[in-house]
Amino acid sequence: xxxxxxxxxxxxxxxxxxxxxxxxxxxxxxxxxxxxxxxxxxxxxxxxxxxxxxxxxxxxxxxxxxxxxxxxxxxxxxxxxxxxxxxxxxxxxxxxxxxxxxxxxxxxxxxxxxxxxxxxxxxxxxxxxxxxxxxxxxxxxxxxxxxxxxxxxxxxxxxxxxxxxxxxxxxxxxxxxxxxxxxxxxxxxxxxxxxxxxxxxxxxxxxxxxxxxxxxxxxxxxxxxxxxxxxxxxxxxxxxxxxxxxxxxxxxxxxxxxxxxxxxxxxxxxxxxxxxxxxxxxxxxxxxxxxxxxxxxxxxxxxxxxxxxxxxxxxxxxxxxxxxxxxxxxxxxxxxxxxxxxxxxxxxxxxxxxxxxxxxxxxxxxxxxxxxxxxxxxxxxxxxxxxxxxxxxxxxxx
Length: 398
Hints:
- It is built from 13 helices and 19 strands.
- It is α+β, with helices and mostly antiparallel strands.
- The strands form 4 sheets. An 8-stranded antiparallel β-sheet has the order 2-1-4-5-6-7-8-9. Strands 10-15-16-3-17 form a 5-stranded parallel β-sheet, sandwiched between helices.
- The longest helix is centred in the first third of the chain and has 17 residues, at 37-53.
- The mean pLDDT is 87.
- InterPro entries: ATPase_AAA_core, P-loop_NTPase, RecF-like.
C-alpha cells in the first residue's frame, strides 16, 4: 500500500505524555487495561472530528482542554501536540513525507484562559522544492522549503478554527490540493466498535450504495449490499463465519415490505428447523459478523481502529481473524488494541506494540522496540509473542 500513515507523535493528550508510534499496514497495541491503548485510538477520532466539526466543537465534545490534556505531573501542561507523518499526497515518499502538526496552547490571563492553535503542513511539490504552510491566529503563511516566502495573508480563519477545513480554498500552487488530500484522509479515519444491540436489529434498505457505519448499526443492509454487489466477497465472508461458527450453514435475509422496507439478517443453522433471526443470536456471533463486514468492506477508510477486537470471540476465530486483518490491510491500514495473549500469539514482531503505564500515569508506547522484540523472540527459541508477553519477558504485565 503506497499511500499510508507512517508515524504518529503525541504530547499531553490524555495519558499520552510523549509518544512516537510507527505504523505499519497492521499495527496491534498490546497491553493491560489503563496502559493507554484506547487513548491512541482517541487521537485519531479527535483528528477526524476536527475536520467534520472543527477544532473548537471537537474539544467541547470531549469536555474541553482540561479534560483532554495530560492529568499527571505537578501542574497541568500548557499545550497539546499531535503530529502525523504520511505519504498521502501525489509526490510524497518515505524520504520526503507529508507532515501535519497541530499544537493547541492554553494561556492564562487575568481575564481568563485563552486557547490558541498553530498548525503546520509540509509536503513535496513535483521535482522541485516543497511547501510549508503555517497557520497561527488568523493568518496563513506559505513558504517554499527551499527558503523564500511565496504567499502570506489572512484568509479569514477564526482564531480557534482548523486550517484542515479552510485551506483547501488555497489556489493549487499554494497547496490547496495537497491540504485537501491530507484532510480527506484524516476525515476518513474510523474507530470501529460493534454496537451489538443495534447491529442485531432490522434496518431500512438503502436507495443508494451502503457504507458500513462505525458501530455496524446497519449490518443487515450492508451485508445485503455486499451479497448483491460482490457475491465473491460475500461468499468468502460466509465461509469465514462458518469456520468460526461450526453450526452455521448460511447467512440469509428476511425482508419486511409493510411500510418501512426493512431487512434483517437470519442464520440457517445445522439441526434447526427454522432460521435464527440475528436478534436472537449470541453476542459473539453478532460481533463476529460485524468484524467480518468491516474486513470485507469494499471502500475502507485510510485507517481503521478497533478496540479489543477479540472481545466476545471464541479463541478458534482468532487465527482466521488475524489472517483476514493482514489481507484487508493491503487496502487500508488497521490499528488494533487488545489485551489477549491468545491473539498476540498470532502476531509478528513488526505488528506487535507493547504498551505500559508508568508510575506518573503516562503511557509508554512502545515500551519495547521492534528490534528488542525480535531479539527476545530469537533468544526464547521462537516462543509465541503472547506467551512471552504474558510471562513478562516483553514487559506490559497483565
